[in-house]
Amino acid sequence: MSAAIDLESLTLDNGGHLLVRRALGTLRPGERLTVRGAHPELPLQLGAWARSRGHRVDHEAPAPTDGRPVTVLVKGAAEELRWSGARRAGRADRADPHADPRWGLAARGALVEEGGPALDVAWVDRDLVWADVAPTLYARAAASQWDPATAVDWAVPDALPTDIEDAVVQVMTYLVENEQAALMIPARMLANLHPHYREVMQLLASQVADEARHVEVFTRRALLHRERPGTSGAGGRASLQTLLGEPDFTLASFLLSVLGEGTFVDLLGFLHHHAPDPVTAGITRLAARDEARHVAFGVAHTAHVTRSDPAFLGRLRQAVERRHDALRDTAGLNQEVYDSLVLLAAGSWEPAAIRRGWDAVQELQRQMDDGRRRRLHAIGFPDDESAELSALHTRNFM
Amino acid sequence: MKTLLLGAVAYDPKTVTIWEGFRRWLRARDCDLDFVLYAHYERQAEDLLAGRIDVAWHSPLAWVRSRRLADADGTALTAVTMRDTDRDLTTAVVVRADSPLTSVTDLAGRTVAVGAVDSPQATLLPLSLLRSAGLEPDTDVKVLRHDTGVGLHGDHIGGERDAAIALRDGRADAACMTDSNLLLFRQEGTLPAAATRVLAHTDRYDHCVMAAGPSADPAALDHLTGLLLDMSYADAEARPLLDLEGLTRWLPGRTDRYDALEKAVDEAGFYDRRGGVSVRGYRP
Questions:
Q1: CATH number, domain B4-86+207-268
Q2: Antiparallel, parallel or unpaired: β A32-36 and B142-144
Q3: Contact A115/B237, CB-based, under 8 Å?
Q4: Which chain B residues are closer than 8 Å to A114 by Cβ?
Q5: Is B204 on the interface with A (CB under 8 A)?
Q6: What SUPFAM superfamilies does this protein's entry cite (chain A) (predicted)?
């Protein structure tokens, strides 16, 4: 087979090579393409272009009869050979059970040229990272992003009583360090996840963005009337450090989202309810909504794993026990934070108010425990074991 | 099988990647290749004949010199392989599109930008083209040389790019460059679109070649040659190396397209007949 094209006034330095390449694409190696054109330098350009791409010019071809330059190219095999070992990166419409690291960063379903560096990621098996609800949760997350500058009315309200403001600042300081941990953990999971599991990658990315906003708004509230934030207890930081040290995707998701963020949703609800000012009420409401999505993925993913491998419940249990043992000799929740929660719920230093505040924090902890037990049950633990594991959860809440 | 020691010139840091890669690929196929990198082609050409290396990845000018050294020595030199991209190059003499020049002889009294003193493609061959039109370089035309990477025989693209820029900026009336670099400079914008035209071009010539010297073990050389000729662009391990070295397949070496360069070398007095360096001011 042979073919012919006319480039008219086009040359290879203004796009003519696209037409030549397209025409060669219809031929097999060894077949000929006759290229005509009006520009006198076309044969020179075609010679250079063809040589660099493994084609050749037939210099024995008959001379043109119409006075216009004509070049006969003989198609080389390079293009076919380049793609001869190419494979699809799975199917576009579904996540494969195993993602080949050699697919690299290629789009799901793309035709991947053989060669190139393999992706250095640990999480390449669907069932170790997946939850069927991930696409829905991502869509919800994308639709629910909010702008800290406009979603909150930052107009400085009347100053609160000094001690109440101090309590808000201390709680915000605590929230920031917890949110920073909650940002770094999914960021680490992301960095080790094969992007073939696109919906999980997108969801984790939105989770990171959520936490970045939370860090921003809690910091901004802490410094609304103060020049400095409050204190950071060693025990709280030790508790968060154990989360950062968990290398397994599912165990990290379980400890952070199912237990930690799940508990935090209750805490944020408590703060919203007892907030002494509209800014605190607004930002805790917005953050709680985001955290609920994170918890939903953590629960769905952990349940996905335990459904396909019920023995994994044992590893989840060990992870809770291991963390509890690691934190046995630490103080847990910063006393300043606990006292601040009591004062915020009390609203004043009146003894009767403090009693109410104390009771409210006790009730909060019961709610947190109930929630953890429900989620543990949902992922497959029997009731008694759920209660036992919930009781081992860190005193630092997250 | 005996080890073959190959010489190559380090015209760019990528030569390390290329030859380490080829060495790894060949050794996996029982071809024991080692390599040394040279700072310039003259020592490589001398060492090939002296038997300090067995095989040399040669520029066309290094081939000419080695051939002359071999003839003077009464020894043989073999052209082993060359890249598909080493065949049938041309060099263009380019002028600005609005230039009044219409033929090579119009360059009399004008300034012609060329590459480095030792560039076959951007200096020696196009200046020979001028001579064949009756113009003696440095007498009838002013030669504006761009000595980037002297000793690399024009492997460094900088000389040709500087010549193109000299033309573009009006410091020269014409510039000499290979057909592929002309296309590249226009596509990348070094030469603005439609701002230049080709005044003349050389006949087709061949470029680099892998040359085997007298010390190469024949069986090892046959094995190396066979493996290179079989190296496929479909091989995902070899393809990045082929891309880096700028070829899609190795072809048998051919030596019948170096006549124009032999003539240009004689005209310029670059090497003498015995392969000695005779050009003045050349300090690789």
A1: 3.40.190.10
A2: unpaired
A3: yes
A4: 236
A5: yes
A6: Ferritin-like (SSF47240)
Q: Which two tokens stand for residue B223?
A: 């094995």
For the beta carbon of residue A158, count every other beta carbon within 10 angstroms.
5
Query: What is the DSSP track for A341-383?
Result: HHHHHH-SS-HHHHHHHHHHHHHHHHHHHHHHHHHHHHTT--H
Query: What sign does the dihedral A155-A159-A164-A168 (CA atoms) show?
Result: positive
Residue A168, both tokens: 């808000």
Structural domain boundaries enclosing A91? 85-120
Q: Provide the edge-to-edge strand list for the sheet that holds B55-58.
A: B33-38, B4-9, B55-58, B209-212, B78-83, B250-252
Which residues lie closer than 8 Å to A370 by C-beta, 6 or more apart? none
- Check A115 against B232: CB less than 8 A apart: no
Q: Say if residue A332's pLDDT is above 90.
A: no
Domain shared by A116 and A131, yes or no: no
Chain B contacts of A116, Cβ < 8 Å?
236, 240
Tokens of A52: 């660099």
Confidence bin at A329 (pLDDT 50/70/90) = confident
Q: For an interface test with B, which of A9, A42, A44, A102 has the most B Cβ atoms less than 10 Å from its Cβ?
A: A44
**Topology agreement, domain B4-86+207-268 and domain B91-201:** yes
CA B171 to CA B163: how far, in whole Å?
Answer: 9
Can you give the residue ranges of every domain in chain B? 4-86+207-268, 91-201
pTM of the full predicted structure? 0.84
pLDDT of residue A350: 96
Question: In sequence order, what DSSP letters do the residues of B115-181 get, joined into one string?
Answer: --TT-IIIIIHHHHHHHHTT--BTTTBEEE---SSTTSTT-STHHHHHHHHHHHTTS-SEEEEEHHH
ipTM confidence: 0.95
Report the CATH number of the B91-201 domain: 3.40.190.10
Across the interface, do B193 and A14 touch by the CB < 8 Å criterion? Answer: yes
- pLDDT above 90 covers what percent of chain B? 98
Please tell me if residue B87 touches chain A, with a CB cutoff of 8 Å: yes
Q: Is residue A321 part of a domain?
A: yes
CB contact under 8 A, A85 and B236: yes
- Other CB atoms within a 10 A radius of the CB of residue A13 amount to 23
Clarify whether residues A323 and A355 are in a common domain: yes
Which pLDDT belongs to residue A398?
84
User: How many Å separate Cα A41 from the centre of its chain?
Assistant: 53
Sheet holding B111-113, edge to edge: B142-144, B111-113, B174-178, B91-96, B196-201
**Number of domains comprising chain A:** 3
The residues of chain B scoring below 50 in pLDDT are none
Average pLDDT over residues A66-82: 93
In a domain, A397, yes or no: no
Of B124, B80, B122, B90, which Cα lies nearest the Cα of B206? Answer: B90
